[in-house]
Amino acid sequence: MEAHEPLLDSPRQSTEHHRHAEQIEHMEPLAVGDQRLQRRIGWVTGAAVNISYMIGSGIFVGPSFTMKLVGSGLMNVFIWFLGGVLSMAGAWTFAELGTMLPRSGGEVGYLEYIYRKPKYLLAFLFTMWSLSNRASGVSSQGTVFGSYMNYAFFGSEYKSDWMERGWSVACATILTLVNILSSKASLRVMTCLTVVKLTILGLVLFVGVLSAMGFLPGDADMGSALSFQGTATSIAPYASAIYYNT
């Protein structure tokens, strides 16, 4: 049976169809020769990878930092709610782009599709920026991981920048080797770490709710903690707070 072109209702649809085809041809190929990777990531693993990518060490250190910036507990809650709304807008945007262009590459593929001239320039610049930005993110999160490991093994009084860096290098090296040696093992590690992160966040939320309801001993005044008392009056702290929680 011969293949037929899709029926187009109007000249405008025909023009858009040809334009879309030209933009797809402009993009880099998905693979060269027999180098195409098989799609073996299911819904659970895919969700775990995205959740683990989004939830890093920032969620464990960010709230106290944004609290210092905005000055009050209730404003801090509002800032985090606003950050969640902005993050959802970004997620919906990427969902639309992903369904429109179901190709590997993420932002690089989208930039190749949208900005055709000069060819690959913006995609290349974004790739270089992404490599440097993510490398710095790994190093900063590794340092946070090192501080937590020092606290767990040596107590709250122990402080050592070099030990934190050592933990960071060890963690980054182990995870890099896992990703190099086996893609299946890296996905399993990612899934396990996602479960650990969600469990810890759930425990933090559970303890916070119990403390607010008075079931746990503490000297915190919930009335003053969840108020606008001491809220910052300048704009700059809010810009920084939104940046850190998105």
Structure description:
This protein is an all-alpha fold. It has one domain (55-244). 72% of the residues lie in helices and 0% in strands. The chain contains ten helices and no strands. The chain has helices at 11-26, 43-54, 58-70, 73-100, 107-114, 121-154, 161-181, 183-212, 222-225, 236-245. Helix 2 crosses helix 8 (183-212) and helix 4 (73-100) crosses helix 10 (236-245). The longest helix is centred in the middle third of the chain and has 34 residues, at 121-154. The radius of gyration is 23 Å and the shape is globular. The relative contact order is 0.13.
Give the helices and strands, then pairings.
Blueprint: H1 11-26, H2 43-54, H3 58-70, H4 73-100, H5 107-114, H6 121-154, H7 161-181, H8 183-212, H9 222-225, H10 236-245
The low-confidence parts are: 1-6, 31-35
Quaternary assembly? single chain
Biggest β-sheet: count, sense, barrel? none
As a percent range, the share of strand residues is: under 5%
Q: Helical element count?
A: 10
**Class per helix and strand makeup:** mainly alpha
3D shape? globular
> How many separate structural domains?
1
- Overall radius of gyration: 23 Å
* Elements, N to C (H/E): HHHHHHHHHH
List keywords for this structure.
single chain; mainly alpha; 10 helices; globular; AA/rel_permease1; Amino acid transporter; L-amino acid transmembrane transporter activity; transmembrane helix
